[in-house]
Amino acid sequence: MPAPAITQPKGLPDRLTALFWRRPRLLLGLLLAPPLLWLGVVYLGSLFSLLIQSFFSIDEFSGMVVPEFTLKTYAELFRAANLDIIIRTLLMASTVTLGSALIAFPIAYYAARFAKGRWKAVFYLGIMLPLWSSYLVKVYAWKLILAKEGIVTWAAGVTGTQSLLDAVLALPVIGGGSLSTSYIGMFLVFTYVWLPYMILPMQAALERVPTSMLEASADLGATRAQTFRTVILPLAMPGVIAGSIFTFSLTLGDYIIPQIIGNSASFIGMAVYQLQGTAGNTPLAAAFAVVPILIMLAYLGFAKRAGAFDAL
Amino acid sequence: MPAAVEFTQVTRHFGNVRAVDGVDLTIAEGSFFAMLGPSGSGKTTCLRLISGFESPTSGAIRIFGEDVSTTPPHLRNVNTVFQDYALFPHMNVRDNVGYGLMVKGVSKSQRHEKAEEMLSLVKLSGYGDRKPGQLSGGQRQRVALARALVNEPRVLLLDEPLGALDLKLREAMQDELKTLQQRLGITFVFVTHDQHEALSMADSLAVFNDGKIAQIGTPEAVYNRPATRFVADFVGSSNVLPPALTRALGGPEEWASLRPEVTRLAATGPVTATVTALRYLGSGTRVVLDMGGTELAALVPAGQPLPEPGSTTAIAFDPAALHIMAGA
């Protein structure tokens, strides 16, 4: 006797598979419901309550939050001291993003184009390894490296480049008493801790550019620089933007590095931390927290307009 | 006048693999030259040696008499149509076609004019504003062709350009490429693993096997007088007869080839064979025979009686059609 044309369903797995085959949307719904609930309720909900808080104000005498809608708190953001904090943070985030991009590109390019087999594993390990140790440990390690009595000063003395270090520290605004108390030091530490987040998306984007496309460019007469500008960079742009979203927004929100490294000038993250904690001014803290969100939206809008996502 | 492309004892090794092994090759100017062979036979590496994406391990390559061993790809007046077309996805068709002019610094208006001219040459006028992603495979192929021709190369290299197209489109493109080549008078070097394509399009062709050229010649010469057993089998799907069988069928004791279309079935003959399979081809039927352990094929035209599988038959042929392969 030949085998039957239809096998009878046996048990729950068979029946469920049959049900999902008849109703594909059911499976999709079941898969999506938990993450959507998490994102929708927990994340968007808290974001929304943050937004509402930012429209409240604080009573100057009692220090109590007045739950009435007003733009007074936002107006406070434009006071000179607060505006300074925003501009300082924005400049630092931009510089860190640019620095990370410049350092990350050659590494990502090497990993995407040339690293094979074992060297690829070495690359991933090298990029991920710093992420395995605590962020705080890394920042304090950097403080020791950059401190006045630290490794950098010692190395400058040994190699006879003390004058160069002094010249760098003598630079107005970004210099300081030592690297660990200057904006330069803060830039170095920020760039170090966020670099992996720039390299990985860049490498993923570069990996998707076929070798034949670079060959086609050379074949048609383009120099390496022209190929880079007209083919590699536009095609890698979505990855660069993805990486810069990480470095930019992480720097915008960070409140630990500015406390440990630098000259104790305030940044957005620190301001939120202090206003929310010690000062108890939740509305202003919320208004400060909205600023990075607006900056990121503006940044993405600008990137889209500039055609950064054309190759997606 | 120097040849368009000339290889002198060219070798290319990848580690222990001899991808190209002592190749001598001369491609005449203005010809349509095909490099035919199975995958891994070295034909694509030879093409990449001409374009400059590979450098020879030893030997010399000349393009119009000039030694190009130290010339990078972007300085060679040779352009390539890539197997995957390699169109730039972030540029529209016009900018893709005009790319070669853009990197040379040609003005935008001239670039657009020339790109439009090239697009009309490949019958894609009016497609300039589209992105490559919005085109069909055949259209992309034409854009790749227009892009490679915009620089007016001395030699155009085509790396299996028709491989991704369906049969009907492939045949139409074969005719078009041939017409285009004759009209432009540019030397075309074409890599393919499809013997029909090579035979129908090329003025002359080289058959590659294991990094070496097994035979070079006109399609007719290669098809009718294969130099080796490999060529006979690969190019014509010819019957390859071992020396003993050639002798038994009335020839000298040498390796020989016999094309299926000149092999007829006969009631009697010096050697009998068993019919193992019938393959219907539309225009005829390929009858596969087992003749004492050697597999042979006979092409029976449509309308003629066919033998039963398993039956015994003999073969007959014009003795002049039996090609003795001295080099086998």
Description:
- The complex is a heterodimer of chains A (312) and B (328).
- Chain A has 312 residues and is mostly helical.
- Chain A has a domain at 72-145 and 195-305: MetI-like fold (Orthogonal Bundle), CATH 1.10.3720.10.
- Chain A is built from 14 helices and 2 strands.
- Chain A has helices at residues 11-22, 24-54, 72-77, 80-113, 118-132, 135-146, 151-159, 162-169, 183-207, 211-219, 224-253, 257-260, 268-276, 282-305, and strands at residues 57-58, 65-66.
- Chain A has a two-stranded antiparallel sheet.
- In chain A, helix 2 (24-54) packs across helix 14 and helix 13 runs antiparallel to helix 14 (282-305).
- With 328 residues, chain B is of the alpha+beta class.
- Chain B folds into 2 domains: 5-226, 3-Layer(aba) Sandwich (Rossmann fold); 237-324, Beta Barrel (OB fold (Dihydrolipoamide Acetyltransferase, E2P)).
- Chain B has 9 helices and 18 strands.
- In chain B, the strands form 4 sheets. Chain B has a 6-stranded mixed β-sheet, with helices on both faces. A 5-stranded antiparallel β-sheet of chain B has the order 13-17-14-15-16, with no helix packed on it. A 4-stranded antiparallel β-sheet of chain B has the order 2-1-4-5, covered by helices on one side.
- The longest helix of chain B has 18 residues, at 167-184.
- The radius of gyration of chain B is 23 Å and the shape is elongated.
- The two termini of chain B are 34 Å apart.
- The A-B interface holds A 210, 212-213, 215-223, 226, 230-231, 234-235, 307, 310-311 and B 51-53, 72-75, 78-80, 82-84, 86-90, 99-100, 102-104, 147-148, 150-151.
How do the strands and helices of this protein lay out in sequence?
The complex is a heterodimer of chains A (312) and B (328).
Chain A: H1 11-22, H2 24-54, E1 57-58, E2 65-66, H3 72-77, H4 80-113, H5 118-132, H6 135-146, H7 151-159, H8 162-169, H9 183-207, H10 211-219, H11 224-253, H12 257-260, H13 268-276, H14 282-305
Antiparallel strand pairs in A: 1-2
Chain B: E1 5-14, E2 17-27, E3 32-36, H1 43-51, E4 58-63, E5 66-67, E6 78-81, H2 93-102, H3 108-121, H4 137-149, E7 155-159, H5 167-184, E8 187-192, H6 195-201, E9 204-209, E10 212-217, H7 219-224, H8 229-236, E11 239-241, H9 243-248, E12 256-258, E13 264-266, E14 272-280, E15 284-291, E16 294-301, E17 312-316, E18 323-324
Parallel strand pairs in B: 3-8, 3-9, 6-7, 7-8
Antiparallel strand pairs in B: 1-2, 1-4, 4-5, 9-10, 11-12, 12-18, 13-17, 14-15, 14-17, 15-16
Helix pairs in contact in B: 2-3, 2-4, 3-4
